[in-house]
Amino acid sequence: MRSALPEADLLIDANSCYSVSRAIEVGRMLEDHGFCHFEEPCPYWEFEKTKAVADALDIDVTGGEQDCHLTDWRRMIETRAVDIVQPDVMYVGGLSRTLRVCRMAEAAGLPVTPHCANLSMVTLFTMHLLRAIPNAGKYLEFSIEGPEYYPWQYGLFTDCPFVIEDGHAILGDAPGWGVEVAPDWLARSKYQSSK
Ligand SMILES: [Mg+2]
Fold first, then answer.
1. Lowest-confidence range among 15-29, 94-108, 144-158?
2. How far is the CA of 90 from the centre of ligand 1 (A)?
3. Taking a C-beta distance cutoff of 8 angstroms, is the pair 141, 116 a contact?
4. Is the CB of residue 64 less than 8 Å from the CB of residue 73?
5. Residue 175 CA to ligand 1 centre (angstroms)
6. Fold that domain 10-148 belongs to in CATH
7. pLDDT, tens only, 57-80
8. What is the SS3 assignment for 153?
9. How far is it, in rounded angstroms, from Cα 114 to Cα 110?
C-alpha cells in the first residue's frame, strides 16, 4: 500500500470489529506500513477497550462517529480513549452540540476529524465546523460513494458551494450555509409530519 501510494496519507477504519489483542496486532502492522489513522478498532461503546489499544499503539487511534450523548463524549475525552475525536454533526444532534464536543476535545488537546458520510448538508455543516474551531484535524471526510449508494444526494443544491482542488476543499463566503436547496429536488421529495 505504501509503495503504491508513496505521497498519500493512509487512514483506515476497522468499524468496531476487533478485540483488544487483535486490534493491537493489526495496529502494529499498520504502523509498519505507514498508516497514520486507525479508526474504531474495537466495539465503539467499550471505551476502555479502545483506550487500551490507543495506549499500546503509536498510530493515532480515533473514534466517536456513533456517539451522541455528551456524557459519553466527556468520558471518552477525559479518559483519552482516542487520540482524535470524530463526532458526526448530525448524529450528535446539530452544530451547537458538536461544538461542545469540539471544546471538550480542545481542552484535552485533541484534534477533531468529524465523521461525514455523504455529500448532503452534513458535508457543508462539517466544512463550516472545521473552519470555526481551532483544533480542526487534518482531514475532511469526503464521500466517494456513487449514485447507486446515495441516489438522493445528486442535484440537491442549485450551485455546488465548494470545489475540491489538489486535495483541498475550498468553500465560498456566501452567507448562511452558502447554498440553496434546488426547488426541483424539494418538489421530488416526500414530506412527513411527526406531530
Ligand atoms: Mg468510520
1. 144-158
2. 14
3. yes
4. yes
5. 30
6. TIM Barrel (3.20.20)
7. 999 999 999 999 999 999 999 999
8. helix
9. 12
DSSP secondary structure of 1-35: -TTTSTTS-EEEE-TT---HHHHHHHHHHHHHTTE
Could you tell me which of 6, 135, 16, 2 has the C-alpha nearest to residue 64?
16
Predicted local confidence at residue 5, as pLDDT? 81
Distance 115 CA to ligand 1 centre (A): 6
- How many DSSP H helices and E strands does the chain contain? 7, 6
Residue 189 CA to ligand 1 center (angstroms) comes to 28
CA of 146 to the centre of ligand 1 (A): 18
CA of 118 relative to ligand 1 center, distance in Å: 12
